[in-house]
Amino acid sequence: MTSLGTLPPLTGKILLTGGSGFLGRAIIRRAHREQWPCKFTVLSRDEEKHWKLRDQYGLSIDCVLGDVRDYHTLVSVF
After folding, report:
1. Using H for helix, E for strand and C for coil, what is the string for the chain?
2. How far is 31 from 73, CA to CA, in rounded Å?
3. Which of 13, 59, 65, 68 is the most exposed place for a label (fewest CB within 10 A)?
4. Other Cβ atoms within 10 Å of 67 Cβ, number
5. What is the pLDDT of residue 18?
6. Residue 9 to residues 31, 32, 41, 48, Cα–Cα distance (Å)
7. What is d(CA 10, CA 36) in angstroms, rounded to the nearest whole number?
8. What is the pLDDT of residues 3-52, one digit of tens each?
9. How far apart are CA 56 and CA 42, in angstroms?
């Protein structure tokens, strides 16, 4: 079994649903700290947290306001 500390970095374009929540922010924080070669798109319903993510991580994050249960929002992200 592999521990989380030894996983390779994510690369490319990454869609994080609920990315402004606790786990999403932890993934983004680790990626930023370890300089992973990826670009995150965060899909969540919390606009205030989107602003906080943009302030903290700048252009490395795209934020989409929406719900993962909404088909049209998902289609627009892809």
Report:
1. CCCHHHCCCCCEEEEEECCCCHHHHHHHHHHHHHCCCEEEEEEECCHHHHHHHHHHHHHHEEEEECCCCCHHHHHHHC
2. 25
3. 59
4. 13
5. 82
6. 7, 11, 16, 28
7. 6
8. 556 778 888 899 998 877 888 888 898 998 999 898 999 998 888 888 88
9. 14
